[in-house]
Write a structure and sequence with these properties.
nine-stranded mixed β-sheet; Beta-lactam/transpept-like; Serine hydrolase; alpha+beta; three-stranded antiparallel β-sheet; single chain
Length: 390
């Protein structure tokens, strides 16, 4: 399945739904697709349980980051946990900025739809319209395919050439050069995988179509109009405590990386509050035409449905532009609609989740690439403990 793999996210969701009575506990269930009945009341016990576990995990650095849970405009939880910088003993707070890793694609998708709104491109345009010396193998690939993960362009993040250059200032052309001449992948190899190469190309197309640099376009078209005052295309010289330091594991600082080497595949930093504002602008059609928001949150490629197995967690699942869209299984055949995206890279991980039927937002930003809470026996311990208590 796509990237919704953090058990920590699963814990928070299961705790919330099981105890608040919104839609039944996560997991289990049969293949029915009855729609869950939303509840406007939130049981305070669910939030208390989440707070207690987050406080415990934060005190031992098993989770470091910031969590926001908000329902229909009401803040249920907004806290920082653990250290933004362990060496300097600077704590994470709700105002701490984190690199948002692959959530950057949500901003890229919105940018391209706004450019389409302005008549400067269409998502059906071949990407080669905007890329000089485009390989012949890319001629049939459209902009849309960059976001529904069907371009079959290979990724580059594990290539030795990229690993050698990522700590240095890098141009978009240099990044594209890493994968430009590599053969396309077979369909089954990339079908549900996030691909940083797609987002690099999206950023480059944004520049060519807008006539601005990637960062300038985001700032003038999205960040400023939406008053995202704590969101930026990351600069390397920003002082602490504004930004969290990234860790591969608690105590192990992530390798240095220049923001330009991340580019459109992860170079944006933000806070949980700004991401909530961003989400609500899309949901409430506060930016661009109504068609822009609708297109972002409409399935354009279906991974699985009732006629195909979606695994234990979903009745159906597909991808919009920058968002995965599905129906999760609950208890007793109930289901709930979910919009989400998440990912991790270079010392940071992030999850952006919205349940439209419950008007429930859950946003998690962490300055650890892979938290120990997600792996090994701890996962089973937490899962068993939570479901037993529910």
């Amino acid at each position: 399945m796509p990237r919704k793999t953090y058990f920590f996210v699963l814990f928070i969701l299961s705790c919330f739904f099981c105890l608040s009575g919104l839609t039944g506990c996560m997991g289990g269930g049969n293949e029915q697709s009855a729609v869950a009945t939303p509840s406007s009341a939130v049981n305070g016990d669910s939030i208390k349980k989440i707070k207690d576990l987050l406080k415990s995990e934060g005190s031992t650095e098993k989770f470091t980051g910031t969590v926001l849970i908000e329902q229909d405009g009401k803040v249920l939880l907004r806290e920082g946990y653990g250290m933004a910088d362990q060496a300097q003993k600077i704590a994470n707070t709700p105002e701490t900025r984190f690199r948002i890793a692959t959530l950057s694609e949500q901003f890229n998708a919105l940018s391209l739809l706004l450019l389409q709104d302005q008549g400067k491109l269409t998502l059906n345009d071949p990407i080669c319209t905007y890329i000089p010396d485009c390989p012949a193998t890319w001629k049939a690939i459209t902009i849309q395919q960059l976001f529904v993960h069907t371009s079959s362009i290979p990724d580059y993040l594990s290539l030795g050439d990229y690993l050698a250059m990522k700590a240095k200032p890098t141009t978009p052309e240099q990044l594209i050069g890493l994968f430009k001449d590599r053969p396309l992948l077979e369909f089954t190899q990339y079908r549900t995988a996030y691909n940083a190469a797609n987002q690099v190309l999206a950023g480059y197309i944004i520049e060519k179509a807008s006539g601005q640099s990637y960062g300038e376009y985001l700032q003038s078209t999205i960040f400023n109009p939406l008053h995202l005052t704590h969101t930026s295309y990351v600069k390397n010289d920003e002082p602490l405590p504004a930004y969290a330091t990234g860790y591969e594991q608690p105590g192990i600082v992530s390798d240095p990386i220049d923001a330009s080497a991340l580019y459109a595949a992860g170079g944006i930093s933000s806070t949980v509050d700004d991401l909530y504002t961003f989400d609500q602008a899309i949901i409430q059609h506060k930016i661009g035409s109504k068609a822009v928001g609708d297109s972002l949150l409409t399935i354009h490629y279906t991974y699985c449905s009732l006629s195909q197995s979606c695994g234990p967690s979903y009745v159906s699942l597909g991808v919009g532009y920058g968002w995965f869209i599905g129906r999760e299984k609950g208890e007793n055949g109930l289901t709930r609609q979910i919009y989400y995206d998440n990912g991790s890279y270079e010392g940071f991980s992030a999850a952006n989740i919205y349940y439209p039927e419950q008007k429930l937002s859950i946003i998690i930003l962490s300055n650890v690439k892979r938290n120990p809470i997600t792996i090994g026996n701890e996962e089973n311990f937490i899962e068993n403990d939570l479901f037993a208590s529910a």
